[in-house]
Amino acid sequence: MNDHSIGSEVLVLRGLSVCLSTGDPVVEDVDLTLHAGEILGVVGESGSGKTTTALSLLGYSTPGTFIAAGQLRIEGKALHMDESMRPMRGSIISYVPQDPAQALNPSLKVAAALKDVLGAHGTPRPGNNAAEDALRRVGFGQAKTVASRFPHQISGGQQQRVSIALALCREPAVVILDEPTTGLDVVTQAQILAELRRLRTEQGVAMVYVTHDLAAVSEVADRIAVMYAGRVVEEGPAEQVLRNPRHPYTRGLLASIPDHVRPRVLEPMPGIAVGVGERPSGCPFAPRCPQRTDDCVAEMPTLEPIGDTRRVRCIHHRKTPPVRTFSVETLPRPSEIGEQPLLMIGDLKAEHRSHREVTVAAEQISFDVNKGECVALVGESGSGKTTILRTIAGLHPIAGGRVLLDGHALPSLVNHRSREQRRRIQLIFQNPAAALNPRQTVAEAIARPAQVLRKLDRRSLPAEVARLLECVRLPVRLANRYPHELSGGERQRVAVARALAAQPDILLCDEITSALDVSVQAAVLQLLLDLRDDFGLGLLFITHDLGVVATIADTVLVLDRGSIVDRGPTRDVLRAPTSDYTRRLLAAAPTVSRTPSSANDPFPVSL
């Protein structure tokens, strides 16, 4: 499938089981095999057990869990999956975390961090050249400059490459990558994926790539293992799994992925993933599966071989239909657009001020959002998208221009706006962990906007909270939990429900789907489309995912360094961009329609 030859087995995992301290299984009977120079993609929704499995390969279990069973061999050597592996972390097997900003020590320069790893476990501490060499291996041309900086002085993409350099600097046999591109813009993401392909090809590094992003993993993986409810449900060569899924869960994931190359109607999976301690005795996907029969709930299906290279855990895998491709143009378009736009942005200018200088974040930004219309803002990190959104929301001062709601100018800052103006414009932040009050339960967080902005009486609040939780596909039992007791995807859905509690006219969405599972993302996008069509909700949507843009947006604005460089109906911009910058974004965006073997013969773009 790729231009390198895959070598001998470098990692063999058999019978892995990880349990909670209560004895409830988190991961059950997982087998994985990894060859030298191979990238294995481990994919699944939040709670599927993919990260738990990946951490177990390092002999690590999170607090409250323990590795109950499992045999691990790396380069032919049998290892105990416990803290006895600690001295081997970095030298035999290493780890690249999801969030490099949190993983890198903010008080250490990059060179010092690399020398700490290179000098770990009694190895003599190396000089500066070794640190710079490690940076050059991951594509840093100005290695000396990067080595002399602190983590906060480099970009998010550079931080992630430093994390990869830390993982590779002691030349381990296996590298575990945990969601390494989540939250990155498409250009930076493409650079990281290209770097991984280069390292795999040139240095023969074997990698386990853990992600919920099938579009990204399709660009790099040789094989894919799909996990659900703590078990592998399908495994095989990446191209075969992506083009002809045999497990209905794999098919459901693929049907939920937005794609800018072949825009189509998404098919959100019904129901929600079963939690730990809630798994049925038979197939755990049966409650959500359109193919289920009584046999499915009788006992757990085995991971059955189909052909020489694939395995699937489904007794009805021969009945799994192909992914349907209904054109996105069959979606209902916005209802009648009034003469006066709901939101008007005219020559908007926003600045960032410090004691020493003034930096223009965005200028000459003009566009309208009509009732029932979705406008998307697209661009790399630092292009000014979020600053524009915060300025419209009143969280950043207006340096020039104006923001009009129903033709009336809004005060620059939110504390000068009326309660009704605040109710009508709601902002959903990218990071729900920071946006949700850790001392409020889910019910309290959702109820507050309804109570403060809509004046809903206390007796009506429980029913309203339950309705909104159902809207975002969360079980009502989560109402009394706190944010730290939820997964990242669950927290983001709570943030969406909280914004909807105000019954806004305009919803400002800042990368709200970037950390969501594809199935949850499809459900959230469908929810927003339904709200747009049923209630005329106006949407201003920031995203770096061009597949999401193709699915939800009527109009797209492309931003580069604070200026609009391309604009128009989504169909036209994606099919015939007018700027080189937009063409670069489109070329960098990952898509399941372009697997490595089809790079020279891509699917036709039929917009």
Automatic annotation (TrEMBL):
GO terms for cellular component: plasma membrane. It is found in: Cell membrane. The keyword S-adenosyl-L-methionine does not apply. GO terms for biological process: peptide transport. PROSITE patterns: ABC_TRANSPORTER_1, ABC_TRANSPORTER_2. InterPro entries: AAA+_ATPase, ABC_Ni/Peptide_Import, ABC_transporter-like_ATP-bd, ABC_transporter-like_CS, Oligopep_ABC_C, P-loop_NTPase. PANTHER family: ATPASE AAA-TYPE CORE DOMAIN-CONTAINING PROTEIN (PTHR43297:SF14), OLIGOPEPTIDE TRANSPORT ATP-BINDING PROTEIN APPD (PTHR43297). This is Dipeptide ABC transporter ATP-binding protein.
